[in-house]
Amino acid sequence: MTDDPLGPFRWHPEPELIGVRDGSATRAALERAGEATWQVALDWLYDEALVRSMGRPTAYAELRRAYFGDAARPGPAPADPATLDAVLHRFAATIAPHTLSSWHPRSLSYFTPPPLVASIAGEVLAQWLNQGVDVWHAGPVAAFVEEEAVRWLCDLVGYGEGSFGLCTSGGVMANFIAMALVRDVHLRALRGAPHPPRGAALEGVRVYTSEQTHFSIGRALDELGFPPDTLVVLPADDGFRLHAAPVATAIADDRARGLTPVAISAVAGSTNTGSVDLVRELADLARAEALWLHVDAAYGGAARLSARDADRVPGLDLADSVTVDPHKWFFQAYDLGALLVRRGDHLRAAFDRSPEYYRGGESHAGDPGDGAPDGDDHAGQLNFYKLGFEGTRRFRALKLWASWHHLGTSGLGRLVERNDDVAAYLAACCRDADDFEALPEEPELSVVCFRHLPGGRAAAATMDPRELDRHQDRLAAALEASGDGWLSTTTLRGRTYLRAGIVNYLTGEADIDRLLATLRSLAPVPDPA
């Protein structure tokens, strides 16, 4: 026996960072560890992240050698302990210089915003608390925080009493759960089946969407056992929006062939272009045809935070389910998505399974009929594992809770409006310039797809279209290598475009001016001779 609380951990050079029970012996060391970690993070922010949009090197094979060494593959795990300072030094030397920076004001590629400081604080606290938000008793107040955040999101999209949802890892999982509801709740009801349909019962089913839908809808249907022809992809209009008319025609044709239309999957803020389908039209059609309407508003749903711009994503309250991703336009640290359902009880109908080791809280107090102990003080509890796929679930909601309290709806909305204004400015610059063009010319939200026209519009019109496409790819690669900005590329109507997904609240109009100037400098006008 020993009175030394650090005795069992003296094998480590910093036992006070492991055996933390005695505050008088360990708190000062923990404070120093926190300060050192925060300092390394700020060094990265100001010395790397705000200097270069992408660290060096960026080529895959080159970066593998830079990180792993000449072998370009992982070596053995560390055998012996080290100090935290040594670990932080290794991070600063081998990881920090080679990362994408979402903080850089001209980093405008995918939907990766710089996280709010309150979100980072919430994430740090969540990791300290280490709550499992699956069974209520494993994270009691954490379940209430998620319940509260989900309620705020339901209110945001316009859902009323009886709606509910849950936090997910992102839009892919949220869309997956939505398609599971289509199968296990809506299709079952249409068929009047005693059990959720499986196997051959999934044949002949149709789900309608547009060419701008996220890949996760098709992936979900595949993984849920639907045949490959289940997803019917319909053309969008010139603004990349899905209307009700082509869907109605497809439904009528499919019913005439004896098929079973079951759902429409719309998008409010597509990843590709930021386009918003005509959700109200689609909702009227879905209601008339007894179809489930899902709206993927993973990105665009955040426009509802702005009183000024909320009408850019109308009709979300008419959907049966809505995906929203706070780690996109709510400026949250990864990972945090959410699925919202107009009838929250549908989640339990699809996922309510109770293993024997989760005994408490499954019935009313004093009623052991559902496996709960007599007089269970926790009866009727909120168990999130019964509402979705995940068992173990991180305390994702705390960072959103902290950020929403810190900025309020109005503050979050101001950041969304700033992004919309900067996107409008970029589109206007393209309209006014002879050597850039945007498609569409007016962005619906904060995504702008545009391309450089070397030599101007007239000269570009004479180029081989494939060479003009390659020019955009080369330009994007040169911009990334320069470190002065980062844009992704995409394909629209068979042609290659640069894509600016503006969800960076640090970006201003001056950054757009500099971005365009940099692109011009990286792509000089060809010599007419």
Task: Please outline the helices and strands.
Elements: H1 23-49, H2 60-68, H3 84-94, H4 117-129, H5 140-157, E1 164-168, H6 171-191, E2 205-210, H7 215-223, E3 231-234, H8 244-256, E4 260-267, H9 279-289, E5 292-296, E6 321-324, H10 326-329, E7 337-341, H11 345-351, H12 397-432, E8 436-438, E9 447-452, H13 457-461, H14 465-482, E10 488-492, E11 495-501, H15 509-522
Parallel strand pairs: 2-3, 2-4, 4-5, 5-6
Antiparallel strand pairs: 1-7, 6-7, 8-9, 9-11, 10-11
Describe this structure as you would to a colleague.
This protein has helices at 23-49, 60-68, 84-94, 117-129, 140-157, 171-191, 215-223, 244-256, 279-289, 326-329, 345-351, 397-432, 457-461, 465-482, 509-522, and strands spanning 164-168, 205-210, 231-234, 260-267, 292-296, 321-324, 337-341, 436-438, 447-452, 488-492, 495-501. With 529 residues, it is of the alpha/beta class. Among the domains are: 131-354 and 381-394, Type I PLP-dependent aspartate aminotransferase-like (Major domain) (Aspartate Aminotransferase, domain 2, 3-Layer(aba) Sandwich), CATH 3.40.640.10; 407-522, Aspartate Aminotransferase, domain 1 (Alpha-Beta Complex). The strands form two sheets. It has a seven-stranded mixed beta sheet, with helices on both faces. Strands 8-9-11-10 form a four-stranded antiparallel beta sheet, covered by helices on one side. β8 (436-438) and β9 (447-452) form a beta hairpin.
